[in-house]
């Protein structure tokens, strides 16, 4: 299983080389902006995309909001990629779309096939079994999905942007939630990332 979890991808993207066995210019990336579909300002998505392009990755954009399910042709593209990257905005919206297209059903198979999952900001939260603490930062009402059960790929909750003063109170509330239910957590400042590389 190969995971790359960051607060802001532009500060640490080059470190993803640790998980690769080829140059960036030969590395295929599926870029998924699905979580931002309801955001009026999409400049942060363009910023994310530009950081990948500046390092000469081979990019293909795939939006789960435009498909009903993972078809054989889509699955083939995912399997042919080296990295699957989820751009950020609302955690609950992304989880809802992931479940609607059944990506959650194939996630572990893709990881077992040595695909790298890369997530920035709140999307790193989706790796944990339950995303409920994210309600302190993200609006849960953007989706009707009442289940917060997530991908269950790691055993700790990621708390990104830990050094941002404007999110200080929100992040403290997330940690308080984690402590109430005895949930392990790990904080990330803007420049940090978590790299996981373990056998199947």
From TrEMBL:
<comment type="similarity">
    <text>Belongs to the peptidase S51 family.</text>
</comment>
<keyword id="KW-0645">Protease</keyword>
<dbReference type="Pfam" id="PF03575">
    <property type="entry name" value="Peptidase_S51"/>
</dbReference>
<dbReference type="GO" id="GO:0006508">
    <property type="term" value="P:proteolysis"/>
</dbReference>
<keyword id="KW-0378">Hydrolase</keyword>
<keyword id="KW-0720">Serine protease</keyword>
<dbReference type="InterPro" id="IPR005320">
    <property type="entry name" value="Peptidase_S51"/>
</dbReference>
<dbReference type="InterPro" id="IPR029062">
    <property type="entry name" value="Class_I_gatase-like"/>
</dbReference>
<dbReference type="GO" id="GO:0008236">
    <property type="term" value="F:serine-type peptidase activity"/>
</dbReference>
<protein>
    <recommendedName>
        <fullName>Peptidase E</fullName>
    </recommendedName>
</protein>
